[in-house]
UniProtKB/TrEMBL annotation:
It comes from Paenibacillus arenilitoris. Keywords: Signal. The keyword Ligase does not apply. It holds the Pfam family FG-GAP_3. PANTHER family: PROPROTEIN CONVERTASE P. This is VCBS repeat-containing protein. The keyword Signal applies.
Length: 365
């Protein structure tokens, strides 16, 4: 039985990134997207964060990750810009309120978006940027003893060649260490993540999604990869195998060829059965009019994974402005407290909330 979702359009803002966290420390999760935060639990009260520059059709905010950067007990936002030249974080003003200060925190260029993983086990996730024309790197947050004081982000370069379009985390070789998957191969994590990473140029995915996901799709004990075409048609999984000589092989399988611009995706247990579903959709006007399928209807979908078969379920589909895709950086969180993860979907066509009612929930409004 398919899950039921109640759709709400929260705003007409055209930011493509969002997140969920407790902005004002009242114990209730709020929604953040670009220039604004929306106060929970009903998200009807809108508060300014500060002006985010509009560049053409883009709002120059390509991630909204929640992290207490300065250790003051108030959650800040870590973000990136494709058009700027630095990692940035926005300082939560706390009880004083007012505009959030934006702080430049490290060199970046041509950055599609950020993804976060605690690569060194310190308890604080590192920021991994997909700088398509630069070698892969991550940013380590350094704070003074006790977690307070003036923070800084230290850039650690782990690749040698341009990263290309596409990036994700997966334990490709099953050694218990998280590797970095890029569009033209994968970087093997050494015992010391600050040491030399080995690049394996084993495939070419083209302008792949961010993230590329790692999961054992077919149950053979090997890590496979799921990716979409960020600026073309197609959603695929890459099967990891072994040839007669013991070498690693990769075989591509189509999941869904009907849609385009699968730029962001997540693996989430939407129905509470202990198994992960693939959640993704179209990034509306990813390159404005430049991508194949740019004028097609937008959609948001989840796929049940059954032993290498993907069963598609449509959450939303239709003309932009009536239906929603999922932008460049969507978020899942149980906002209603019913035990099911909801979906917050940003995009150039507005900010939407899809409340997950479960399999036996009431009909969506």
């Amino acid at each position: 039985m398919a899950l039921r979702f109640r759709k709400r359009k929260l705003d007409d803002t055209r930011c493509e990134a969002c997140s969920v966290f407790d902005v004002n420390n009242d114990g209730i999760p709020d929604i953040v997207s670009g220039s604004y935060w929306y106060e929970g639990p009903d998200f009807t009260q809108k508060h300014d964060i500060g002006e985010v520059e509009a560049i053409g059709e883009y709002l120059d905010d390509f991630a909204d990750y929640p992290l207490d950067v300065d250790g003051d007990g108030w959650t800040d936002i870590v973000t990136a810009s494709f058009f700027g030249d630095s990692l940035r974080w926005r300082r939560n003003p706390g009880p004083a309120g007012g505009e959030w200060e934006t702080v430049a925190a490290g060199p970046l260029r041509a950055t599609e978006t950020l993804r976060f993983h605690d690569i060194d086990g310190c308890g604080i996730p590192e920021a991994f940027a997909n700088e398509i024309d630069s070698p892969q790197a991550f940013f380590k947050l350094d704070r003074q003893a006790g977690g307070k004081g003036v923070p800084g982000f230290r850039k650690v370069v782990i690749g040698k060649e341009p990263a290309g379009h596409g990036m994700g985390f997966a334990d490709v070789n099953g050694d218990g260490r998280m590797d970095i998957v890029l569009s033209r191969g994968w970087l093997e994590q050494p015992e010391d993540p600050y040491g030399e990473w080995t690049f394996h140029p084993e495939f070419d995915l083209g302008a792949a999604s961010i993230p590329i996901l790692g999961i054992d799709v077919n149950g053979d004990g090997r890590c496979d990869l799921i990716y979409g075409m960020g600026h073309d048609y197609g959603l695929y999984w890459l099967e990891q195998g072994v040839d007669a000589s013991g070498g690693r092989t990769w075989t591509r399988h189509e999941i869904d060829g009907s849609g385009s611009q699968f730029h962001d995706m997540q693996l989430v247990d939407l129905d509470g059965d202990g198994k992960l579903e693939l959640v993704t959709g179209k990034r509306y006007r990813a390159h404005n009019d430049g991508d194949p399928g740019a004028d097609d209807p937008v959609g948001l979908y989840y796929y049940k994974i059954h032993e290498a078969a993907f069963e598609k379920h449509v959450i939303d589909y239709g003309p932009a402005g009536e239906a929603s895709g999922c932008g460049i950086y969507f978020w899942t969180h149980d906002l209603t407290g019913n035990g099911y993860p909801d979906i917050v979907a940003p995009g150039k066509d507005g900010l939407y909330l899809f409340e997950n009612m479960g399999e036996f929930g009431e009909e969506p409004a």
